[in-house]
Amino acid sequence: MASKDTTAKESLAPLETISRKVTEWTGSSTGFASALLISIAWAVSGPFFHYSNAWQLVINTITNVATFLMVFIIQRSQNKDAMAINIKLNELIAAIHGARNILISAENLSEAELKDLQESYQHLLEIAQRKRKQSEVSDTEDHEEPPEQKRAS
């Protein structure tokens, strides 16, 4: 079965490479400048084509196809980034003694389970804030008496 997995990965390698390069290029200043130049060229060519339906159809077709493809490129890029971040966070969680291991696969939990976890962390935050306020109050009380009175008592 390992050879099937390897073959499948090898057949996707060119698509992975193309997708990565397109993602990098479209997110660059060069990609933006190219799109801007195409738009300007299209607008300038309008009078030569008498602003015909065919002239309008060209830009509409180009933008529709580009948008359609970019949706998949963007989704692929975000999925890959999210997966890499999850792997890094999983490694940190696994390495920390006392961390809750359920968080390693948090992305696979249902929305209700995630909300429950969020509520438990919100509760922990509230406890920490109360402890901090109590600590600040006790620190303030310790500093209210002048040092001379404290020594005398």
Low-confidence stretches: none
Strand content: under 5%
Chain-averaged pLDDT: 83
Number of domains: 2
Number of strands: 0
Helix content: over 70%
Task: Indicate the structural class.
Answer: mainly alpha
What order do the SSEs take from the amino end to the carboxyl end, as H and E? HHHHH
Shape: elongated
Rg, Cα atoms, Å: 29 Å
Gap between N and C termini: 80 Å
- State the major sheet: none
Oligomeric state: single chain
Counting H and I runs of at least 4 residues, what is the number of helices? Answer: 5
Short description:
This protein is an all-alpha fold. It contains five helices and no strands. 82% of the residues lie in helices and 0% in strands.
Any overview of this molecule?
The protein has 153 residues and is mainly alpha-helical. It has two domains: 2-108, no CATH class; 111-153. Helix content is 82%, strand content 0%. The chain is built from five helices and no strands. The N and C termini lie far apart (80 Å). The model has no long low-confidence stretch (mean pLDDT 83).
